[in-house]
Amino acid sequence: MSAPAVTRALRVLALLEAAGGETLGVSEMARQLGVARSSLFNVCLALEAEGVVQRSEGGYRLGRRLVELGGAYLRTVDPVQAFYQACSDISFLHDEICQLAVLDGTEVLYLAAHAGRLPLRMTASIGSRFPASITAVGNALLAKLEDDELRHRFEDPATRPAWTAHSVTDLDALIDKIRDVRGRGHARDEGEVFPGIRGLAVAVAPQYSGEQAYAVGASLLEVYCNVHIEQQAIEALSVMAAHIANPMNLGQGGAGIDL
């Protein structure tokens, strides 16, 4: 059963969102929605009474109550759920192997993994631990630490294992690599974990001070990973990271979904 008043209320909120902070008068909103001004005026009064919109000179704008409602929604969404939703909604990532990880000392712990559709046999799965020094997700998270902390944390050579001939095991070289990650804004593992596989990763911006740091990554076949593909992957991972940081970001602007 439809509820015209509720539908009009939601359409008012959509108009005010599109206004980008500018006020809209009742007459203008009624014109855009093709409804009578008198009926829309009553809707606006009801929304104002609940704090969802606020009246100011020239009309209405979105109210502070929406911040509270949005915060309540965000508190119900966990990063793992947001990760899988992004893997589903971002077309570039459908077929790729993707990971969500956190840093634990000198290792990364995988909280979620998307298998993709590529014919790769990888051992990374939920609950797996990998050395942070050689993984793209690990490097993305290490980039948030100071150089002195990196030197202290990875002082023991055992924390810098060589899984392939390309693995960076020298401490100074590791610190230089992490500095490059900070400069680029994303991490790259070129065959350090699995030969022929390029790992790419970005960190998830925390919403709150002290929040657990996350990183999202993708594993691509090196032979197909040219500059264009890598850029697409980084853009897709950045959209995913923004979605995990704030699930209401997914699809904003339209471009991210079709990557």
Automatic annotation (TrEMBL):
Instruction: Cite the GO molecular-function annotations of the record.
Output: DNA binding; DNA-binding transcription factor activity
Name listed for the protein in its UniProt record: HTH-type transcriptional repressor AllR
Q: Which InterPro entries match?
A: GAF-like_dom_sf, HTH_MetabolicPath_Reg, Tscrpt_reg_IclR_C, Tscrpt_reg_IclR_N, WH-like_DNA-bd_sf, WH_DNA-bd_sf
Q: Where would I find the IclR-ED domain in this sequence?
A: 65-254
| Keyword tags | DNA-binding, Transcription, Transcription regulation
What PROSITE patterns does the record tag this protein with? HTH_ICLR, ICLR_ED
Entries under Pfam families matching the protein? HTH_IclR, IclR_C
